[in-house]
Amino acid sequence: MLITSLIYLFAGTKYESVLVKAPNDEAFKALGRANLTGLTQGFRMAADAVVRNLDCQARKITTFEEIAQVGTTAANGDGEIGELIAKVFEKGWENDLITIFDRKALYNELNFVKGMKLEWGLKSPYFFTHKNKKECVLDGALVLIYDTKISNSNVIRQASLPCMMQGQSLLVVAEDVENEVLGDIATDFTCTTEKVCIIKAAGLAEDRKAIMEDLAILTGGQVLTGGSGMNSTYFVPLKLGSCKRVIATMDNVVIIGGSGELVDIQERCEQLRSTIKLSTSDKLKDRLAKLSGGYAVLKVCGHGKAEVREKKLKITNALHAVQAAKEEGIVPGSGVALLYASKELDKLQTTNSDQKIGVQIVQNALKMAAYLIASNAGVDGSVIDKLLEQDSSDLGYNPARGNYVDMFKCGDVDPLKHVPSEFAKATSMISLKNAI
């Protein structure tokens, strides 16, 4: 139906509820006095003009303050979250952000820690701790690294002793593990509160062992080879490394906050850099990137499910908003960008009255968000009318203070990507078939 197509026109935006109802009402009226083909052409003409205008209004964000403003607005005015997200982007860690919710924490905290991501996945889905996300998450884990196939349960049982004594989880990285051993380990850990995660290391033997050595240095442990001393109860625990957090899926694993000495990690990186100069291997460069990389860990305090859920939503919104703003820029918020875009439609030259009606339907809908915000604040619509008389598209109205403000300076902005800029694509879906 035509109405379905109009919903697509404005769907996926923060103004969706306003922008859908307005054109729906007008479209019902227009169908009785206008040709659908002409209406469709009018919609498409309006859409193209609006997209061009919004692109002209958009500004790139570069400074810390601008990024924090976007994050704060998206986080429903939470300035602290806005600044934390800005720090993440300032460091260039937006693609490596891990959020942890800690009910015991007294305040939000952002740290940048050493970490390594490997394309080695879980040995079995049995180790999922979050089945809905299909991932295993361990906090405060000891790390056992074994460069061959584990065919004896004794090795893992030795490693599990300090885990059970200290209340820590266990990460096992090995070439492979016998199914019989998996069954034994599953039985052993079923009766404890500690968690275990077994990672199957893929790749050629030489590459695999080299990466294991890198991981051992990162976590402060050693690679076990199954040599002499394996029958000693004290041998395996002495070789274990440790890390603050592990996130594993069936395809990859991320080890965060390894306890290896910084000087050892730096020395290993220098060795790799020296070798890279004498080699053309991309694998060495990949190893260096993994060993020298890291992650932004945002620890968020939350004292109840409701508070945690709210903060999680704020952080997600802020992160996505800033990413969108970095990609395509920002425009005035609170419906102001749409309001000014509606002025652009006055310049459109239509060839018939049906096209003109289609343009007017979109034009009226674009104004609705700003008028509704003003109305909800108890402000007369005339203040919005005055904005349409201005030449500057930066000017907006602040209902709380009752004055006109520069939307960019006061931080009331939206990422262009989150404003309805998909008009052209959406209107192309309108056809005679949809109207039947």
UniProtKB/TrEMBL annotation:
Keywords for this protein: Chaperone, Transit peptide
InterPro entries, per the entry: Cpn60/GroEL, Cpn60/GroEL/TCP-1, GroEL-like_apical_dom_sf, GROEL-like_equatorial_sf, TCP-1-like_intermed_sf
Record Pfam families: Cpn60_TCP1
Gene3D superfamilies from the UniProt entry: GroEL (3.50.7.10), GroEL-like equatorial domain (1.10.560.10), TCP-1-like chaperonin intermediate domain (3.30.260.10)
Signal sequence region: none
GO biological process, one term: protein refolding
Molecular function (Gene Ontology), one example: ATP binding
Family matches, as PANTHER family: 60 KDA HEAT SHOCK PROTEIN, MITOCHONDRIAL
Similarity-based family: Belongs to the chaperonin (HSP60) family.
Protein's name according to its UniProt entry: Uncharacterized protein
Organism: Citrus sinensis
